[in-house]
Write a structure and sequence with these properties.
Keywords: Transferase. The protein is built from seven helices and twelve strands. The chain is an alpha+beta fold. The strands form four sheets. The chain has a four-stranded mixed sheet with strand order 4-5-1-12. Strands 6-10-9-11 form a four-stranded mixed sheet, covered by helices on one side. Helix 5 packs antiparallel against helix 6. The chain is globular and about 55 Å long. The model has no long low-confidence stretch (mean pLDDT 94). The structure holds coenzyme A.
């Protein structure tokens, strides 16, 4: 298992029946169930439930039965598989936003036990009713000066929105790969999307590979980035955006078929 894989699920909330939810819930551990049930909105429960089922189905496919899997989280909340015998060990990370849930899986190369793999996905849309300029003003202190300059030079608001979400999802993927999430100052990570150039604390980091991807949900578009700390001595590489269906490492399923196949795989 040399390379990473990304599995994404696209939810159509209206197609999700309560019976399916209750049944799917029985395939995750009691701690996950408690977390999932706490959400006020059912769609939030679904996102976390599907994220956890993506991990469990992947592990079954790799020969680890549901009863053999045990999980733990780091102090900052990054989940990992404990007591694993796989060689190389299995690394994974999960993200969700609106209708999309995605998991990255790959060889655990560096920084056990949670390893240096991270993923983030976001819908390409300014939340609420604000404009992209208003939104950038709100989160602006988490962007570097050069990122502000790039955004100011964007020719249209749509272009600016896309550039912004590349910057943001790369920052999140990087900080999730190192396991710190929002505990790491986002301003320290700088991304120039057109040049595909990443800097951390002003330097191109060594040993990293980033992958940009795009998913479509009807008219809506999502942008995502995977961050993989390979631990080699090469300067960070950013692989360009892969449109869904055009990539050997990215696969997409719909919510209901995903839940049905996950349950049948986990049952055996
Ligand atoms: C991780 C974090 C960035 C998630 O942000 P987000 O954009 O809202 O969420 P995403 O959808 O991309 O990711 C959510 C998933 O990230 C994973 N996750 C949680 N904490 C994580 C961490 N520290 N590193 C990597 N992944 C993490 C979980 O699998 C979670 O899914 P689940 O809760 O449904 O199981 C944010 O919750 C965070 O920063 N948490 C840690 C903060 C912290 O404790 N800092 C302490 C200082 S080190």
């Amino acid at each position: 298992m040399e390379n990473i894989q990304v599995w994404a699920v696209i939810l159509d909330e209206s197609a999700l029946q309560d019976e399916l939810y209750q049944r799917a819930l029985t395939f995750v551990d009691a701690e996950s169930q408690a977390k999932i049930k706490k959400f006020y909105h059912r769609v939030d429960s679904y996102r976390t439930l599907i994220g956890r089922l993506l991990v469990r189905r992947m592990l079954v496919k790799k020969g680890i039965s549901l009863s053999q899997m045990t999980f733990a989280t780091t102090q900052s909340g990054k989940s990992y598989l404990t007591a694993q015998n796989s060689n190389p060990p299995i690394a994974y990370n999960v993200t969700h936003d609106n209708n999309v849930i995605a998991m990255v899986v790959g060889p655990g190369r560096t920084n056990p036990p949670a390893f240096g793999l991270g993923i983030d996905v976001m819908k390409t849309r300014v939340p609420g009713k604000s404009s992209i300029n208003e939104f950038i003003e709100v989160v602006g202190d988490q962007l570097s000066q050069q990122e502000h300059t790039i955004l100011q030079a964007a020719s249209t608001d749509d272009e600016k929105t896309r550039q912004f979400f590349w910057m943001w999802t790369l920052k999140e993927a990087y900080t999730k790969a190192i396991g710190m999430g929002l505990g790491f100052d986002f301003k320290r990570v700088e991304f120039h999307p057109q040049e595909r150039l990443v800097k951390v604390d002003g330097q191109i980091p060594v040993g990293w590979k980033f992958r940009m991807f795009v998913l479509k949900d009807g008219e809506d578009q999502y942008q995502g980035v995977c961050a993989d700390f390979m631990g080699n001595s090469e300067q960070a590489e950013v692989l360009p955006e892969n449109i869904e269906g055009n990539s050997s490492w990215l696969s997409v399923e719909e919510g209901v078929p995903f839940l049905n196949t996950a349950m049948s795989v986990l049952h055996t």
